[in-house]
Amino acid sequence: MHPGRVISTFVGLDAVIGALTANGAAIASDPTNSASELRSGRNQFRASILMQLFCFICFIFLEITFHRRCLKAKNIVTPRLRSVFFLLYASSGLILVRNIYRVIEVFQGYDGYIGSHEAFFYVFDGVLMIINTVMFNIMHPMMFLPNSVNVYLATDGHSERMGPGWMDKRNFFVTLIDPFDVVGLIRGKDKKEKFWERGEDFPIVQREEGRGWRRNTKGGKALPPPPPPPSA
């Protein structure tokens, strides 16, 4: 999946699901609607909540897939990357518990046991989201990542190079419609250029000592390539 499409895909799906959820809730809460319309609104609301849970599980699957691929590669999982994975898994776990709570609450109905006891809302919604917000304010993933999306970790596991960025030669709108390149998978043309295997073609990036990536607005300074070894 094109890294730039991760945000657009999941945020776009979340926006669509949010609109469906709001529409279903509006229909189900309108006392002037008929019994069939109220039932239709409740069903739409429930389906939207399930869709939201499914999309979030897909996002967690994407996290796990990326983590597994990093573990298979040698010397890639650095302490900084471990911190990013920890934050992602911790946040995903909190949000997943909240989403499961919301599914149970909606299917029980607001007059059910969970819906009629406010303590469940404070624990499984309010407290979890407060923890998630505080965690990201203290340890945001960008503290451990370069600001430039073109900087990548070299195969030696410690050098950082200024590469060309993720190259997807498809049309921009095609990447939005088909972020997983399903058409390419079917045709067998989904292979992207592995520029990271040509590390010598890209300059090494030097982090500014004492400042870190968080304050380095240009993602580091590119160093010139090392001089060739002297001839014998």
Task: Walk me through this protein's architecture.
This protein has 232 residues and is mostly helical. Helix content is 55%, strand content 4%. It contains six helices and four strands. The termini are far apart. About 8% of the residues have low confidence.
Spell out the key features of this protein.
mainly alpha; 55% helix; two-stranded antiparallel sheet; single chain; elongated; 232 residues
Per DSSP, the total helix count is 6
Helical residues, percent? 40-55%
Low-confidence stretches: 209-226
Q: What structural category arises from helix and sheet content?
A: mainly alpha
How many strands in all? 4
Q: Tell me about the largest β-sheet.
A: 2 strands, antiparallel
N/C terminus separation: 47 Å
User: Biggest sheet: strands side by side, in what order?
Assistant: 1-2
Nearest-integer average pLDDT: 79
* Apparent shape: elongated
Please state the CA-atom Rg, rounded to the nearest Å.
Answer: 23 Å
Q: Bin the strand percentage.
A: under 5%
